[in-house]
């Protein structure tokens, strides 16, 4: 996945490692991602990791957290 600069405005998106920076990517895409980025995160990462990151995150907006929690509860 090629990450948008506007999604990762504070770093060089080309230097983001999807494995080492999983929490950072998941949080940013959950809050600000476009449909294709959300689909990529959903398919790339294990659902248990997504659930763990969403539950423990301190930076996600409440609406975002509620939506992702509902999606991951299935």
3D architecture notes:
- The chain has one domain.
- 57% of the residues lie in helices and 0% in strands.
- It has four helices and no strands.
- The protein has helices spanning 22-32, 35-44, 47-56, 62-72.
- It is globular, with a radius of gyration of 12 Å.
- The termini are far apart.
- The mean pLDDT is 96.
What is the string of helix and strand elements? HHHH
Rg is 12 Å
Shape descriptor: globular
What is the number of E strands? Answer: 0
The average pLDDT value, as a whole number, equals 96
Structural class: mainly alpha
- Contiguous uncertain segments of 5+ residues: none
End-to-end CA span: 26 Å
Strand content: under 5%
Percent of residues in helices comes to: 55-70%
Strand count, sense and barrel status of the largest sheet are: none
| Count of structural domains | 1
Total helices: the number is 4
Record keyword descriptors for this entry.
74 residues, mainly alpha, 4 helices
Summarize the helices and strands and which ones pair or pack.
Elements: H1 22-32, H2 35-44, H3 47-56, H4 62-72
Helix pairs in contact: 3-4
Q: Short summary of the structure?
A:
The protein is mainly α and 74 residues long. The chain is 57% helix and 0% strand. The chain has helices spanning 22-32, 35-44, 47-56, 62-72.
